[in-house]
């Protein structure tokens, strides 16, 4: 077939950078690891940086949250997290154990939902991690449905144990499981309707799993309860959890069928495809010239559009691409194992999650915002901070200082009164009117400097003004000589979850000049942070520090 070369090479770069230890690399190291020419790597990286999938840090590049969009499309389309996520959370609370949901991926098992109990010894696997079928609880449930080709592929891989770290980097090195032993586990899983992992991944880790079938009767996924030998044996874990897992299986299968039907019919559960009307890669090509690989950008756009089974016409319409261009991209993705052809349509495969998803989905809030704040500091030469509302105070959760002779001595964890700070006023502005009035009434505002506003009625007007303008400006109310400007930061649902600010000295110039210089880069930075938060938290709750 006529493979789209730039798309194939771009995905090779992303796979190398998604491997453990490869999330941030120099271009020369990336060229050696992929075997590609340095000039090719330069063009691939330039394109991926422009698309937002990679980010330049000094002389290195690192994975960036927008790379999660292909994986997010797969997770939305497969329906499993939406259908089983609420049940998994309920069971995790009931059992007080970690609960995982996994899908088959070749001769492996890939996680798509993780509800983890936080303990000293807790589950470290992430959404997107891949385990060999013979080394985990869901594996026998999936292997029971392998055809001859799938079993032959498993035997070939097992015959080359040196391939295990390459294909399953999340798995600790251990002696291979004997084929006969795995066959016995598969037969037992078929007979009993559940399977177990008795320390096959690593010492102390145990799990039991049950299958969840789709409307065709195929095992679509498996739900596992994971524990430790300090809390259970496999027998006691099975006794404690299997009855409830079996009780919930019917409800889980019904929920999965409902979500899949909604996706097929375009109902409320379907992810909406957005028709862009024009090919955005063409515009980028005109702007950036030969360094921009148009076919790589188009291929990734197609992958992001596959939020379920989509016809060629639907993909072309939603991406703005010509049918022939979309078809070449789809066939290349099929050849590389990221997409499969089903009837007259195409749907993404779990392998899409290997493209950085496990690493990026595990990023903490500070790790997401810090690079953007550092860039803001480089642009403005002023310190940047982020805070959340905590009672009547703000609490700093991230900070990047600007290195000057005179600087503000604030660290992560510092608390300040919300009424006297720009970030506090932005956060107060996001509250319902009744709650805002109650907070201001109980805040007992006191003068910190001679310019601090303490009258509740005037503070209410200032906060309302911040809500209307979309930013708050505080001029020497917290400390003489200190000005600060803040804007809200919203999560994927549009809710204000934090505030971002820059602080400067009053001697910088008139207020109007300060606003003109700082507000545009501050607003742009907040927008980029919000885009990353949408990618990282799609289908998941945001955990704030």
**Low-confidence regions:** 267-277
Q: Using the coordinates above, name the CATH class of the largest domain.
A: Alpha Beta
CATH homologous superfamily title of the largest domain: GAF domain
Looking at the structure, the CATH topology of the largest domain is Beta-Lactamase
Q: What percent of residues adopt helix (DSSP H or I)? A: 40-55%
Structure classification: alpha+beta
Distance between the termini: 50 Å
Please state the overall shape, judged from the principal axes of the Cα atoms.
globular
Mean pLDDT value: 89
Q: In total, how many domains does the architecture comprise?
A: 3
> Which CATH architecture of the largest domain would you pick?
2-Layer Sandwich
**If you compute it from the alpha carbons, what radius of gyration comes out, rounded to the nearest whole angstrom?**
26 Å
Fraction in beta strands: 15-25%
Q: What composes the largest sheet?
A: 6 strands, antiparallel
């Amino acid at each position: 077939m006529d493979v789209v070369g730039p798309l194939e090479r771009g995905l090779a770069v992303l796979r190398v950078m998604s491997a453990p230890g490869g999330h941030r690399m120099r271009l020369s190291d990336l060229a050696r690891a992929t075997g590609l020419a340095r000039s090719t790597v330069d063009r691939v990286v330039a394109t991926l940086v422009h698309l937002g999938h990679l980010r330049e840090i000094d002389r290195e590049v690192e994975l960036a949250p927008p790379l999660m969009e292909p994986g997010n499309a797969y997770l939305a389309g497969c329906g499993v997290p939406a259908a089983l996520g609420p049940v998994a959370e309920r069971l995790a609370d009931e059992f007080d154990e970690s609960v995982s949901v996994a899908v088959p991926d070749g001769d492996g098992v890939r996680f798509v939902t993780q509800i983890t109990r936080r303990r000293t010894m807790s589950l470290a696997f992430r959404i997107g991690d891949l385990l060999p079928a013979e080394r985990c609880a869901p594996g026998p449930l999936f292997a029971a449905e392998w055809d001859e080709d799938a079993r032959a592929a498993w035997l070939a891989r097992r015959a080359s144990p040196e391939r295990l770290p390459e294909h399953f980097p999340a798995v600790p090195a251990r002696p291979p499981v004997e084929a006969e032993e795995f066959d016995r586990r598969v037969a037992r899983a078929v007979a009993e309707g559940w399977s177990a992992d008795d320390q096959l991944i690593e010492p102390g880790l145990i799990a039991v799993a049950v299958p969840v079938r789709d409307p065709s009767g195929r095992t679509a996924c498996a739900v596992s309860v994971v524990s430790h030998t300090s809390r259970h044996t496999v027998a006691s874990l099975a006794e404690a959890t299997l009855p409830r897992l079996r009780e919930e299986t019917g409800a889980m299968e019904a929920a999965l069928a409902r979500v899949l039907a909604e996706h097929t019919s375009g109902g409320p559960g379907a992810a909406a495809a957005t028709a862009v009307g024009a090919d955005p890669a063409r515009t980028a090509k005109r702007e950036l010239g030969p360094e921009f690989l148009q076919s790589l950008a188009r291929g990734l756009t197609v992958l992001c559009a596959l939020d379920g089974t989509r016809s060629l016409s639907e993909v072309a319409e939603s991406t703005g691409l010509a049918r022939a261009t979309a078809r070449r991209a789809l066939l290349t993705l099929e050849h590389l194992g990221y997409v499969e052809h089903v009837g007259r349509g195409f749907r993404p495969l779990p392998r899409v999650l290997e493209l950085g998803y496990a690493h990026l989905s595990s990023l903490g809030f500070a790790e997401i915002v810090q690079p953007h704040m550092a860039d803001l500091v480089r642009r403005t030469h002023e310190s940047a901070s982020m805070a959340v509302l905590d009672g009547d105070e703000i609490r700093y959760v991230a900070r990047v200082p600007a290195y000057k002779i005179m600087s503000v001595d604030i660290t992560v964890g510092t608390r300040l009164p919300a009424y006297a700070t720009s970030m506090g006023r932005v956060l107060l502005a996001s509250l319902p009117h009744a709650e805002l009035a109650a907070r201001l009434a109980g805040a007992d505002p006191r003068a910190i400097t001679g310019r601090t506003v303490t009258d509740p009625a005037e503070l209410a007007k200032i906060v309302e003004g911040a809500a209307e303008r979309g930013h708050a400006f505080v001029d020497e109310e917290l400390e003489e000589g200190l000005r600060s400007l803040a804007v809200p930061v919203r999560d994927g649902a549009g809710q204000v979850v934090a505030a971002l600010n820059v602080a400067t000295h009053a001697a910088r110039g008139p207020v109007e000049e300060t606003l003109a210089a700082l507000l545009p880069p501050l607003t742009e930075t907040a927008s980029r942070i919000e885009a990353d938060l949408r990618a990282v938290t799609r289908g998941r709750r945001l955990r704030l520090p």
